[in-house]
Amino acid sequence: MGGALSLTLAALAYPAMLGVNTVSSSGSRLVAQTQWGPLTEADRDFVVKVRAAGLWEYPVGQMGLKKGQSKAVLIASKHLIDGHAALDASCRKISTMLNIAIPNQPSPQQQGFINTLNADSGKQFDSDFANILRVTHGSIFNVIASIRSTTKNTVVRALADQANATVLDHITVMEQTGLVNFDQVLFQETTPPKLPKSDLTPPPPVAGQPQVVLTPPVDSTTQPPVLPGESSTGQNASPSPTVR
């Protein structure tokens, strides 16, 4: 019994490479068989990526409501908070269903984005807000499409559908600020900086630490979808995956 538990923890261990500009070379490797379909490294890493994105974009949305200078930036900030609260609810459910460890903190690179925007003020904040978020959403957009087209896991596919709609919405509201420098954004998307893996990886959750929950706003207009195997009341069966 102890050996089986050790195998489960090793096979579903916290992913090592999760940066926006990093793709695992063995993403198709099967890590578990679940009742929702096979779970690959790429599937598992995608759930962690979505969770980590919310851990920095949600507080940036809150920051935007306080520091944003234009109405368009305030609107975009509300979309960030609303969309990532709903995505986070799905991530937390799916991580339990698939026995995936998810972070409680963003990666050092993502924390750097927070620090940059926290130091900004006035029109500089609005400009950096729109451009940083347009780059990061544009970069993850292709990852979502790849997961959606290749995953055989139904709950990961549902998350990809939700993430696709959310990211497209966020790309759109960033562009509607009128502040996006498309030449600069395209260059940064296609020529990402070469950062060490440690900068791109969110720290693993600390044992016993309460899970961070991104609370939906009172006036939320976005609800997480009902996941495969989940009733309309939000209850689901979540047996442990069978590890290979």
Structure in a nutshell:
By secondary structure, the protein is mainly alpha-helical.
Can you describe what's shown?
- The chain is mostly helical.
- The chain is built from 8 helices and 2 strands.
- The chain has helices spanning 2-11, 41-67, 71-98, 108-119, 122-150, 154-175, 182-190, 197-200; strands at residues 30-34, 37-40.
- It has a two-stranded antiparallel sheet with strand order 1-2.
- β1 and β2 form a beta hairpin.
- Mean pLDDT is 86; it is low at 1-14, 16-25 and 234-244.
Strand order of the largest sheet: 1-2
Instruction: Identify the overall geometry.
Output: globular
Q: Give helix and strand order, one letter per element, not per position.
A: HEEHHHHHHH
Which percent bin holds the helix content? 55-70%
Number of strands: 2
Structural class: mainly alpha
Uncertain runs are 1-14, 16-25, 234-244
Question: Average pLDDT, to the nearest integer?
Answer: 86
Sheet of most strands: 2 strands, antiparallel
Distance from first to last alpha carbon: 16 Å
Report the radius of gyration as a whole number of Å: 18 Å
- Note the beta-strand portion: under 5%
Count of DSSP-assigned helices: 8
